């Protein structure tokens, strides 16, 4: 049978875009960046912390006990190990009667120095609250209308003010102290008191809130990447390239008998 006269004519081949090769290189580069970026930054921060602790602890370690005295190179992390065992030993000594007596004597001495007293007491309360495991500060996350009406910011909810401060706050409503972290460095921010009714509590952990703030909203809660997802990005990009190439292939006319 001869083909019908109204059969569609064969289409001319569509040339492959000139940016196909560059697009593949771009996808591979981004995949490599996604895979190696977090690992490199994490290793850099760990190395920086270990090096910083080594530099702080090394002057207090006698030369005879330093690894570089007997080895042609230094041992990274030696200062961190010494600091860990030293702090553990101090905690053990402070837990008995003699240790508690020495701590009380030291606190009494520091309490008599006007400038040092306020700093020491404030830092001690902060450390006791953060590391005792009994405090509830900064475990709840909320939203407050800041810096202007209609704009909402994430805050970490802390404790209620003491009686002296609560008495001087305007209105009869209960207030709560909150900390508003700044992006991209959540260790800095604003501390203020806000009426309890003005806070909208959200079901979000403090870690997720810190990640959201540090990423400036790029990483949303619940969107943590699957560990296998980054490794599969190259395959997805390759599959998309093959699909696009297939879509650009000329379509053969159907035979009509």
Can you tag this structure with a few keywords?
flat; 257 residues; 8 helices; 5 strands; alpha+beta
Strand content: 5-15%
Give the helix/strand class: alpha+beta
Number of strands: 5
Distance between the termini: 6 Å
Short overview:
With 257 residues, the chain is α+β, with helices and mostly antiparallel strands. Among the domains are: 32-121, no CATH class; 140-215. The chain has helices at residues 20-57, 78-94, 97-111, 114-131, 163-168, 206-214, 227-231, 233-247, and strands at residues 140-145, 152-157, 175-181, 189-195, 200-202.
Describe the structure.
The chain has 257 residues and is of the alpha+beta class. Among the domains are: 32-121, no CATH class; 140-215. Helices cover 48% and strands 11% of the residues. It is built from eight helices and five strands; from the N terminus they run ααααββαβββααα. It has a five-stranded antiparallel beta sheet, with helices on one face. Strand 1 and strand 2 (152-157) form a beta hairpin. Helix 2 packs across helix 3. The longest helix is centred in the first third of the chain and has 38 residues, at 20-57. Mean pLDDT is 76; it is low at 11-18.
Layout of secondary structure:
Elements: H1 20-57, H2 78-94, H3 97-111, H4 114-131, E1 140-145, E2 152-157, H5 163-168, E3 175-181, E4 189-195, E5 200-202, H6 206-214, H7 227-231, H8 233-247
Antiparallel strand pairs: 1-2, 1-5, 2-3, 3-4
């Amino acid at each position: 049978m001869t083909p019908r006269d109204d059969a569609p004519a064969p289409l001319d081949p569509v040339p492959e875009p000139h940016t196909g090769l560059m697009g593949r290189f771009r996808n591979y580069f981004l995949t490599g960046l996604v895979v190696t970026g977090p690992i490199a930054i994490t290793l850099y921060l760990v190395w920086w912390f270990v090096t910083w602790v080594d530099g702080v602890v090394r002057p207090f370690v006698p030369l005879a006990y330093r690894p570089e005295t007997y080895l042609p190179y230094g041992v990274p992390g030696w200062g961190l190990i010494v600091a860990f065992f030293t702090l553990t030993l101090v905690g053990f000594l402070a837990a008995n009667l003699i240790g508690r007596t020495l701590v009380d004597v030291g606190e009494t001495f520091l309490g008599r120095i006007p400038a040092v007293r306020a700093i020491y007491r404030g830092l001690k309360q902060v450390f006791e609250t953060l590391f005792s495991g009994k405090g509830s500060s900064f475990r709840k996350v909320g939203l407050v209308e800041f810096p202007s009406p209609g704009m909402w910011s994430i805050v970490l909810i802390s404790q209620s003010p003491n009686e002296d401060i609560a008495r001087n706050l305007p209105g009869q409503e209960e207030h709560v102290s909150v900390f508003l972290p700044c992006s991209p460095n959540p260790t800095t921010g604003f501390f203020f008191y806000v009426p309890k009714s003005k806070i909208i509590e959200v079901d979000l952990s403090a870690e997720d809130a810190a990640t959201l703030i540090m990423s400036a909203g790029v990483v949303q809660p619940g969107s943590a990447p699957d560990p296998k997802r980054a490794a599969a990005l190259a395959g997805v990009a390759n599959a998309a390239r093959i699909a696009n190439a297939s879509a650009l292939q000329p379509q053969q006319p159907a035979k009509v008998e």
